User: What shape does this take?
Amino acid sequence: MDAELINPFIKSVENVITTMAGISMTMEKPSIKRDNRTWGEVSGIIGLAGNQATGNMILSFDQPSILAIVSGMLGESFTTIDAQVTDAVGELTNMVSGGAKGALSEKGYYFEMATPIILVGKDIEIKQLSKDPIVLVPFVTETGKFVLEASLTKD
Amino acid sequence: MDAELINPFIKSVENVITTMAGISMTMEKPSIKRDNRTWGEVSGIIGLAGNQATGNMILSFDQPSILAIVSGMLGESFTTIDAQVTDAVGELTNMVSGGAKGALSEKGYYFEMATPIILVGKDIEIKQLSKDPIVLVPFVTETGKFVLEASLTKD
Assistant: This one.
């Protein structure tokens, strides 16, 4: 996956989480996803589908990072991954992919977004039917860590 | 979800499985999905995204049904859910949604398909960020059972 395609997702993660939750983060070195497992305790998945680009975007959070982010978003304290937290993960997934969609359409890669799916559980066996690598971008916040997994194939 | 939208998925399931695997099936009564869990041992998920319709389609198989279907598709005997079986689940997911896509575009509902995702494991907590109900359609084969879960919202 080209840097041209991944960078709008990275910028959108930083923009959405900072704006919505008031939480800053540091990006760690991106890598290629090597296993077929969910990284975090809760993951938001969204299908990306268009004539010029097809794939999925996943945001996968450890428990401390998502509880702090959703507490920041909703202005109350969350201590477990409940229905409000999983809904917020779906909303974040929508907003992050929406930001990347806008930036990529300006570069000529147009796609629509499917409905977000939320998975609860770490180390769930998951894979994508694509020969293209999935780029994994870790982000560290004050309380925890989350990863962006992006796979977008030019058609 | 209207019958107008669900019927092309049902017809495509029957057409693809019969054609690709030589396996016949009986449809049971459709219902609305009430829990937030994967139904079967292995599930293929695909995002559907367009200007007129958005959602996801899931095919979720118990172990006996998918092993017989993939054995029929690939012409050799499979006894465990290995990488070839999960890839075949992804291909089936692609083919079934592709058939429905074609039929629905003729009715004026146009969408593109994301890259299929395959999940291994029963009773994994999963939900969709949509207020629309998910229609669950069970199919019984000679060896086992699988379900179609379709959610498509008119935009």
